[in-house]
C-alpha cells in the first residue's frame, strides 16, 4: 500500500481523541471508529472499569487506548482529568462530548433534581470538557463534536429537561464554532434520532413500535450509523464544516 493510500485509510493516525460516555452505546461505537481510523483514544465513563471492553476493542485497531473514570458534571475533576489525558497522550486533537442521561417525566411531575441533573450531565458536562480541553485543541487545530439529539430541535413531551440540555448543546456548538474558527478548530453537533442503546431499551414495546412506525426509513438507527457521521466530521471530509447540527435520524424530524 502506498503512503498516500495508507493515510487515506487511516486519516487519524497519530491523533489523540477523547470520547466521553465511551463505555457503551453510541460513545463506544465512536471510540471504535476513531481507533479504526488510526486515532489513539481516551475512553471516559463514570468508572474506568466500565471502559475495559471498549479499550480492548480499540487497542486491537490502534496503538493507544486507555480508560478513565469521572463524573462529567464535576468541573474540577474534569479539569484535572483532561490535564492528565493531555499529558499522557502528548496533546489532544479530538474531543467528542457524548456522555448523556435521561430522567423523563411530564413537567408537573418532574422534580427540580431531575431537571438539574440532566442539565448538569448533558450540558454542563460538555462545557466542562470544552473549557478544560480548549487550549490543547487550539494548539492542535483540532476537531470537536458534541452529541445532541433531534429532541433538541423538535422538543418532546416528557423531556423538557433533556430537550433543553440538547438545545443548549446546539447554541453552545454554534457559539464556540464562531469563537474557535480563527484558530482553525471545527465545532459541530451530531443529533441522533432513535438509536438502539441502553438509553432507549426500557421503552415499552408498544411505544417503541409506534416510534419506529413514525420513522420514514422504517427502523431505529444503530450506534455505528451515528459514529460514521462523527468520524466523517472529524476526518478530512469535515475540514470545511463548522457550527452545524448534523441530524442522523432516518427522517424522524422531517
Ligand atoms: P447509553 O447507552 O445510556 O450510554 C451513556 C454513556 O454515558 C455511558 O458511557 C455512561 O457511562 C456515560 N455517562 C452517563 N452519565 C455520565 C456521567 N455523569 N459521567 C460520565 N459518563 C457518564 O446512551 P447512548 O444512547 O449511547 O447515548 C449517548 C449520547 O447520545 C447521549 O448524549 C444521548 O443523549 C445521545 N442520544 C441518544 C439517542 C438514543 O436514541 N440512544 C438519541 C439521541 C441522542 P457508564 O457506563 O459509566 O454509566
Your description of this structure?
With 254 residues, this protein is an alpha/beta fold. It is 48% helix and 14% strand. It contains ten helices and seven strands. It has helices spanning 3-9, 25-36, 52-59, 75-89, 112-140, 151-154, 160-180, 198-201, 205-213, 223-234, and strands spanning 16-20, 40-45, 65-69, 94-97, 143-147, 186-192, 245-248. It has a seven-stranded parallel sheet with strand order 3-2-1-4-5-6-7, sandwiched between helices. Helix 2 runs parallel beside helix 3, helix 2 packs across helix 10 and helix 4 (75-89) runs parallel beside helix 5. The protein is globular. 46% of the residues are buried. Bound molecules: NADP nicotinamide-adenine-dinucleotide phosphate (NAP). NADP nicotinamide-adenine-dinucleotide phosphate binds at residues 20-27, 45-47, 50, 71-73, 98-101, 121, 147, 149, 192, 194-195, 197-200.
